[in-house]
Structure formats: C-alpha cells, structure tokens
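Continuing from the previous page of notes. For each protein in this section, the sequence appears first, followed by its structure tokens. Read the first protein now.
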Amino acid sequence: MALYTTINTSLNENSTQDYPYQYLDKTRNMHLMTLKNVLNIDIINHIQLDERLARNLIAKGIILLANTATTYIRPNSLFIRQFDRKVQFEQSKKAIQNDLCSQFISNKSNIISVSNEDYKRYYSTKTPYEYPSENYILSPPPTGYKPICVQLLARHGSRTLSNHDYDLETLTIWQLAKQKNMLTPLGEQLKEDIELFMHANNHLGRGELTQIGKEEHFGIGNRLFNRLKSLFISSNKISVMTSGKKRTVDSAQEFLNGLIKAEFNNIQILNEISNKNLLYFHKSCTNYMTFIKTNPYIKIKLNIIKNLEQTKIYARQVLKRIYKNEFVELLINGNYNIDPIEKKIIKNEVDIVLCLYWMFSVAPAQSQFNLAKMLAKYFNEEESKWFAYINDAKGFYEKGPSIEGTTVTYDMAKPLLTDFFSSVSQCIETNKNIAAYLRFAHAETIIPLATLLQIPGFTDKAVHPLDVYTYENNQWRGDKIAPMAANIQWEIYQHENNHNQILVRMLYNEMEVRFKQDCKSLTPDSFFYDFNELKRSYADLLLPSVSDVN
C-alpha cells in the first residue's frame, strides 16, 4: 500500500483561494524535491510511505482514502502548514520515512490537521486495532532469562457486518417514511448509503475479514517475531488453533504470514483441530445460555440504560436529521404500521437508532473512504459515544465483570485459562520445541478470559447490584478490552542456568499489564511474575483437565 498527499495541481497561480502549498518557500521546495528524488515519486506533492506508517496515521486519526493498492489523504481534509526539518540529499529512504513518521506522530498539528468533530467517533468493540506507538518501550526481562515460549489468544481482525437484520429493519422504516414524504435531504441519501455499504459487505461475505482486518493480524505477528526473534530462530514449531469460524482461520493465516520470515521458513505449523469448547464456548456452555435467557437482573439493567432520558434525546437527534419531525413523533409514539414478522429488533425510536449504529459500527473496517466514514455521516461524536456506551453495557453485563456475585458470565473461560497454564507446563517439561501456542477466537472469548484474569483497573471491577454500569463508575471499555484483533499474550522466560526458574509477562494488546491483585511480581515496578506463584494464585479458577467443560 502506498500513501500519498495530494493537492489541486491545476490551481491558477493568481487564485485567491487559500491553499497552503501555494506559499512553499525555497527551502521547503528543496525538501520536497529531495523526497521526490529519494523516494522515487512521480510529482513533487506525492510522498510514498510504507504500510506501517500508513496504519499508524490511521490509528492517530488522520483519515485515509484507500483501495487495494493505494491510500490517499483527501485534499479537502488536510492542511500542510510548515515543514521545518532539514532533509539532506544523502539520507536513505528509510531514514526519511522515520523522520516523516516522527513528525507526523509527535507534531502532526504542524503538518496535517483533521477536525475531531468531523471524524472522531466511538465504535465500542468494533473499533479497529491500534497497536502501541513507537515511543512505547517494553521493560527488558531480568538478567539471565531468555524466552522459551509465548501463549496467545487473539480476536479475529476487523470484519464485515455479520448480522442481516440491521440493514433490513432500517430500510423498512426508511421505506415507510418515503411513502409518507417524510425524509430530510440527509434521509434521502440513507437508502443509497445502506445499499452501497451492504454491497461492499456482501461482496466480501458477511462476517469476513476486510483488508484492514488482515493487516491488523499481519502486523501483530510481525511485531511478535521482531520482539522475540531469538525464540523463533531456536524453535521450529508453532501450534495454531481456531474456533473454526472462517474469520478466525483467515486471521491465523495472516498472523503467520507476519510471523514467519522467509529466511526462517523451516518453522513447522501444527494446525490443531478447531475447538469450540475452548474458543467459542458461549454457544456450548449450558449454564451460560440458561443465564442469558432467564436472568431478569441483566435485562433490567440494560433496559434502564436504554430508557434513560439521555438515550432518548440522542436517538431523537439522530432521527431528526434523517426524518421530518412529524415522522419522528410517529416513531416515538409507536404509531406506525410494520408487519410484526419484520420487527425482529425494533420496538421504539431507540431501537431504530441502535440498528443504524450497529450496522455502521463496522464502517472503520472498510477500505473505501466513503464507506469508512459512514457512521460519522449520521452520528456526531457525542451520539456515537453514547450508543457505544450502550453496546459496552451489554458486553459488560453479559460477558464481563457484570454484577457483584455473578460469575457465570466468565466461569466458562476456565477451561481456556487452564489450557494456558497447561501449555506453559508442557513447554517447560517436554522437548516438543514449540515456540508459540496461538489461539484465534472472538470477542465472546476474549472478554470472559480477560475478566477471569482480573487485571487490576482493567477487567476486575463488577458493579454493585443496586448500581448501574456507567463510564463514571467503571473503567471497563469495549474498545480497550475487545477491539478488533484484541489479544492477550503471555511471554514465558526461563533462567539460562537454573531451568526451574520460570517467569511470565502478560501483554494486553501488546502493552504490559499486571495479573490479579494478589499476584506479586518480582519487584513492585516489575511486570514479570514467577510461574509457580501464578499457578497458586489462580488455582481456584483452574480445572483438573481441559476436558471438564460446562
């Protein structure tokens, strides 16, 4: 993928329209000419950058227009003001790219500015993966320890829409408004937008990885290789398991593409049989399914949030941009006729807007700019944040910490946690020479495991039975716990002289996090834990064998 900055090169020199590039001085012209020569670009205002930088710019809020081969920054979205770093002709392409990267990231307000009001939106668990910046430094292992294994659980990457109801129910309401001549100018565009969006989703396949989803896992695998290169050079086997869903299989393949370098292509991949009891357990756990269907308290809490006055205010704001006021009043009062068979989700105006939000929440997974910004077209920042909160509440109550005293939402992850520990033990005690145990699954897998791990200040706080989960009283956020391609990694280290001394470090989305509160790291500021101490701390959460499911 190539990244270009583009401007209107056909402007008349005498034009009074304010285009910053018209005022480039001789020094900046020289710098741009240098870039042209070194980076092999066609014209002076086309700057080719590598894929890593392009993805970093996306993560930092600079919106890119992409197709399968080329990514462009839209001309009307950028303002290039000042380029004051001296660029020498003898610099290599890599040096210039690194220089540009540091300026874009650390001082991007002086290079490109994109209004947060225009583009910043909240997508909850559909948020694309954002890996740590280059400024984030992992702490080194203690002296004398070397990596011997890594354990991983990863959610699949960014995907297309998997549900078939959101678009159909939204179009049903739209058609009714069209018949009554109750559409606003924006509302007139909604049907075409939905059809374009769904065509792109259907073309790839419902619930399948997009190009961005593939890049997410390729990048995670590549960074793992670079971080623990000595491990993969000395070991020659990698165990891979998926839930069996195609998007997890494809994620695994992209991860491996990033992990395995051509010069080390003798690594043997052990493709394990798909195990839904380990990696798709929410569908097979009888206790959990019964709880979700029958427990009244979860439904009450979620209904309280859906019926808050603020929820209704935001829902009506969204609707009034699409439909005329009279029609919105009909929706609020329930005075509209829709076949009950077609009303699978919609019961009121809030449900209508939730359908629209859920449909377009996968928009950032799209490569085309007009599709990627689809949610931003119909929701402002505050509205998207509120409906992301509603989605977070559902994940929190049904799969996460939930209500104090309720453990069924994450007890089903015990076999998976047990598998992590038993795989570490196998790595230590046998000569299988397996460098990595890689597991690819879903948000419904990673959220319960993260909760079971009780990561301090992250996944360890349930709400009191009399309280309701809010952003003010709890740190749990769907876009941090389970964004697309979310991952939990355990790095296993062994002392070179005393092989019985085993340390574990946990990374969550490639950043260091701590194990539960009663686990003591080597030192107060260390992220490395003694493996035997971890087993003792989590002993009450482990099963006698992984086969003990349900």
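Done with the first. The second protein uses the same format. Note its length before scrolling.
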Amino acid sequence: MIKTTNPYEKIPVKVFNNQRQASLWIAAEIAQIIKQKQTQGAPCVLGLATGSTPIQVYKELVRLHKEEGLSFHNVITFNLDEYFPIPKESLHSYWHFMHENLFNHIDIKKENIHIPDGTLIKEQIEDFCSYYENLIIENGGLDFQLLGIGSTGHIGFNEPGSSINSKTRLITLDRKTRADASSSFYGIQNVPKYAITMGIGTILQAKKIIIAAFTEGKQRIASTVIEGGISSQYPATFLQNHKDTLFVLERASAQGLTRYQAPWLLEAQGLKGELQIKYDLNTAKKGVIWLSQKVGKSILRLQQEDYEDNALLELITQIGQGNCGIVNLTVFRELSQIITGWPAGGRPDKLPESYFTQKKAISKQKIIIFSPHPDDDVICMGGTMKKLTNQGHEVHVVYMVSGNLAVFDFDALRFADVLKETQNMIGGNGKEFYEKVRTQINEKKPGDVDGPDLAYIKTIIRRTEARSAALCTGVEEQNIHFLDLPFYETGKSQKKPLCDEDKKIVNDIILKIQPDYIYAAGDLTDPHGTHRVCLESILAVLPQVKEQLPNLTTYLYRGAWQEWELDKVTMAVPLSPDELYEKRIAIFKHQSQKDRPMFPGADSREFWQRSEARNKETARLFTNLGFVNYEALECFVQLDVLQQLGEL
C-alpha cells in the first residue's frame, strides 16, 4: 500500500498546477505500464473512464502514439460503464466517446476493445454482466484503472449506497448524476435513467488505480473522499483500502484539503519541512478568518488561547510579535479596506452613506465587463454594474459567446411566431421563416445540432435579452458588444479548442475600447467549461495588451456557480436592499433562462436565487467577522493577486 505522511489524507495525493500538467503525467504513467508489459511480451489490461476528466489524458496518449511511436498492439481495454439504453452511434454514448477521443487514433486491435453494451434488451443484461466480469478475469485482471469522480462521490456509475463487493450490473442513476449530465444531453429529460457499470468490487481488483478530479467544482467531493471516513454514501471512499491508489488533483480541485485550508494544522503534526509555510499577510488573513469561523468569534474578540488551541501560535510570533491583538487588528484593517462602494475609485467624499448614493465619481474610468454567456454579467455583478454606471463611468459589456445552446426549442418557436405576426403587419417573410424553424425543430432528434435558422433565432433571443438586461443596469446601448467567439459555435456541448481567431477578437475589442479596468468571469465550473475558455482567451492577450495599457487593472468575479473564498477577496462591493432588487430585475430580463434553464447543473435554484443567496451569505460571513451588517456583497479578486498565489 502507498504510504501517506499526511495524517488527514487517507488516500495518497499528487497535486499539479493545472489540469494539463496532471493529464500529461497520467498519460506518461499509462504509457510506462504499456511499455513494461511489452518488454515482458505480455498484454496490458487497462480499465478506462469517460467524461471530461480523461479527455486530455487520451489526447496525450494519441500524441505519444503518433509522434513518439507508443504502440497499443498489446493493450486490452475494459471501459467502466455505458448508459442504458443507448445506441452506439449516439453522440452521447461512451462507445462513441471512446472511439472519437482515443480508439480511432491508435493501433489497438478492435477485438481488444470492450465497452458495456447499451443496445441490449433488459433480459440479456445479467448474462452480459457475468460475461464482462469473467472476460476481465480471463485476461489476467486489470493492470491499471483510470477513474474520475462524480459530484456524489460515485466511481463508474456506482451511486451512493453501492456495496464494496458489487460487480458489473445494471444500475438506476441518481437524479443528481443525471442533472450533472444534463448539459451534454440538452436537458435532464433526455438523460437515460439507467447504466451498466463495473462494480466497486471489480474496480478494487485492479492492480493500480489513479483517480483524478479537476476544476473547482470537484473541490468539496475530493476533500470528502480523501479526508473523510469510509462510507457507502461516498463510494469513492472505498479506495482508501486499496493497496495502490493515487488521487491526482490540480490546484483548483485541491483547495478543499486541509493542507491548503489550514496548513498550520499539518505543521503542528511535525510536517513543517514539507509544507514550508510562509507567515505573511496572506497567511494571516487566511488563518484569522479560519480561526474566527472555527471558534465562532469576531476577529477583534479572538484571544491568545484561541490561537494556541488551534495551532496558530506561530502566526502570533511571526506577525504580531507575540501579541494576538496586533494580528487581530492587522487583519481587521486589511479586510476593512477591501469593502468599497466605489469599485472604480473616484469617491468624492468619505461619508459612509456615499456607498448608497448616486453621486458621480470625481474621475471617469473606462470599464470592460467580459461576460462569457449573455447573462453572467448581471448574475454575478449586476449590482456593481449599476453602481459603476450611476457613478458616471463609461461601462462597456462584452458578451463573448452567443449562448444559443441554452434556449429551449419551444421558446425559439414562440419567438419565430412573434416575428411572423409582426411581419404580417409590417411586411416581410415571417411566415416562411417560421415554417423553417418549425420544420427544423420537428426533424431534430435529441442531441442533434440545431439547424441554421433555429440556431439563429436562439442567438437573437439571447442577444436581445442581454441587451435589455445591460440597459436595465444603465449601460448605454452603443457600449454593448457581441463577439460570438468561434470556439463556441459548434452547435454541440463539446467546443472547439481556443484558436488564434478567438484571441484576436478579444485583443481587438480591448484595444478598441482602451479600458482602465477589466472585469472577467472567474466562475469556472459552468457545465460546458465555456467560462474557463473565455478566461483563457483574455489571459492569452493580456501581456501584449498591457504593453499599451500599463495601468490596466483586471478583476475576476463569481456568483453563478460558486463564490470566492473570503481570504482571497480583494474588493467587496456592498449592495442595499433596493440595489439587490434592481439586480434581480436585470436578471429577470433573461426570460429564456427563467424558471427552468436548459443547463441548471446540480443546483435546482434559479440563477437569481443562487446569486442572491451567495451575496447575502457573503455579507453574513463578513458580519460574523465583526463588520457592518450589509444586505449583500458582491466580491472580486484582482487577477494579479491570484497569479501571485499561483492559482492561475
């Protein structure tokens, strides 16, 4: 069994800076196992996973085959699972996924590929599952198993409650699992209710296992599985008993671990040399906020014994010269300075009530708000947008992708009907266009790409909603821009890689506007990964842009899918009850996303409800730290700070 020196981590963990580095390392590990087996003249039996986690691993394996001669002639594969029922040719089948991302590009023998069969009739499944189990055994068992992890802690499709001894079988999918998959199936109603999956007992027979979790969205479940107790409610925790399992994370998904949340606790366990904690202001903020929340006291009420009892005595020594009051006051003052009602500066006076007035800033700034989808701007920072326009700044909103995938067909048809009725009065071919849209809807099967007229009308719906919402926050119409970045326009949930054309479009709009401030989405856990690609396009051009705009300041916002950790926040903008209500009204302008959005993720709340809840919760957390009881707070992190922390 692999040993871990970290007393909190019950599965060995390897953390990389980003997903690409982690994926390249995993691919190299797989390649090494294949080569070792080749030198022995033996077959290499691999258990393979699907989903977003292994895509870059498979891409690197293909590269190793094509550019470095890695052969798969001796490889036998067994996939973890498959939806049921589902035809092999479906874009959503794992048979299609594996062939598109790996098998079609390497020299593996077709007879060596094994994937659970989603085309069987139910009466055949039990016999097939026994056959699948026996086939793995006949081939000598799995030399290596690659796993991802679901938000419920499932591995394969072994849902909560699965037995440690379970074998390959038909399983009913948890609603949360189906909700997580709904973004690929264009709605939960299209996600199959069943799947055939290897059992946990089958997986645990593998000689070596690597389980990977990437992105901020996997933070909570990764820390639960790695540091929590073994429980059938989190099936991945059974891996704690496996003799050779490694959990691979990137920095974003690892942040929930104690080594990042409270590294001083590990230092107290004698791991100081391994951790090398630097006791600076950032550590002080993190430590004091953590301590305040743990003991339930406001910052200025923390006492010496609170620090001593929670392994933070060194913080007092390094930062407070042995006096906890100095540490308390230092952190309190630092946090006080990040709360401001003037997000672009230019505050005309120092009166507290100026937070909630419409006084103009003494200096006018140019601001770009980059919104990945057409509603991210108002969901995440609608209150701040209203403040910026009220204070007289020149605010530009740049919508990066069309977001047309997120419109229901019935909404598109209704919109085409409005166009038809309008053109009956003013003249035009509205009826002809309506019939085209209706035909394309009727002929479309679940998962098919929208026809051109249907895609166009959905784009127009999102565009007009975005314009209405931006105008509602005070943005002038000429300052509303739509980029329709090419990487997004595939008509599918899987997008094209970011290309030079995308970067050029982003670069050109920045240089055209010449902003003093940029606000961009740091909310990177949206279902299709669009936010991440949009941010990458901005980060790619910023170094060149800053040569011409050296004073440019960039902030990242969140709110639709997650919120910033308090110790990272560099600006918190308070909202009054009226301002929070005005933000809600702006979000309501996105009628196609109201009540039941196409891609809600696992959260059943509407986006305005999520946003308000997060803004109010942030205000409550600040109140508990000892600050004014604001109605709500929108939080931002300066890009430079995240880069200095090594988190971007």
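What the second structure shows: The longest strand covers residues 632-638. The CA atoms of residues 11 and 399 lie 42 Å apart. We return to this in next week's lecture.
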